[in-house]
């Protein structure tokens, strides 16, 4: 069998944050000439499955673990906009019951600020009490 034509086409996701590219799907078409003179073609479609195990389309690649996740698991940090998988997303509960998806760094920062403001209020209440006893 002699090769007549080889064709490769694919779908690539581009990560704007890290500038990395990931192949999402690949198509291989090989046409060959058989000994009998016929043109035989093989057409293969490769699909790369998301790591999260879902059957859906790929949404993107996590900035932390570099793995591909499906559209429903994929999200972005609402503060710094890095792409994240569910495993590497931290969900911050808001007062209105809505959840904010944040990356580890932004989550830690928010939590630290929250803790500091609590300590601040506590200190203030001590001073107010001491003041009142005088
Ligand atoms: Zn991840
Ligand atoms: Zn998923
Ligand atoms: Zn972030």
Explain what you see.
22% of the residues lie in helices and 40% in strands. The radius of gyration is 27 Å and the shape is rod-shaped. It is α+β, with helices and mostly antiparallel strands and 134 residues long. It is built from 1 helix and 9 strands. The strands form 4 sheets. Strands 1-2-3 form a 3-stranded antiparallel β-sheet, with no helix packed on it. A two-stranded antiparallel sheet has the order 4-5. Strand 2 and strand 3 form a beta hairpin. The mean pLDDT is 85. It folds into 2 domains: 1-48, no CATH class; 50-134, Zinc/RING finger domain, C3HC4 (zinc finger) (Herpes Virus-1, 2-Layer Sandwich). The longest helix is centred in the C-terminal third of the chain and has 30 residues, at 104-133. The termini are far apart. It binds zinc ion (3 copies).
Q: CATH class of the largest domain, anyone?
A: Alpha Beta
Number of domains: 2
CATH topology title of the largest domain: Herpes Virus-1
H/E order of the elements? Answer: EEEEEEEEEH
- Mean of pLDDT: 85
CATH superfamily annotation of the largest domain: Zinc/RING finger domain, C3HC4 (zinc finger)
What does the largest sheet look like? 3 strands, antiparallel
Straight-line N-to-C gap: 101 Å
Helix content: 10-25%
Number of helices: 1
> Structural class of the secondary elements?
alpha+beta
Strands of the largest sheet, in order across it? 1-2-3
Tell me the radius of gyration.
Answer: 27 Å
DSSP E strands, number: 9
């Amino acid at each position: 069998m002699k090769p007549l034509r080889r064709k490769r086409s694919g779908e690539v996701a581009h990560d704007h944050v890290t500038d990395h590219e990931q192949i999402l799907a690949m198509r291989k078409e090989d046409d060959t000439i058989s000994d009998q003179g016929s043109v035989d073609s093989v057409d293969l479609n490769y699909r790369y499955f998301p790591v999260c195990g879902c059957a859906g389309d790929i949404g993107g690649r996590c900035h932390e673990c570099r793995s591909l996740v499906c559209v429903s698991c994929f999200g972005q940090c609402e503060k710094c906009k890095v792409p994240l998988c569910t495993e590497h997303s931290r969900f911050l509960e808001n007062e209105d019951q809505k959840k904010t998806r944040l990356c580890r760094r932004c989550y830690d920062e928010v939590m630290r600020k929250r803790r500091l403001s609590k300590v601040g209020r506590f200190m203030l209440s001590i001073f107010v009490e001491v003041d009142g006893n005088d």
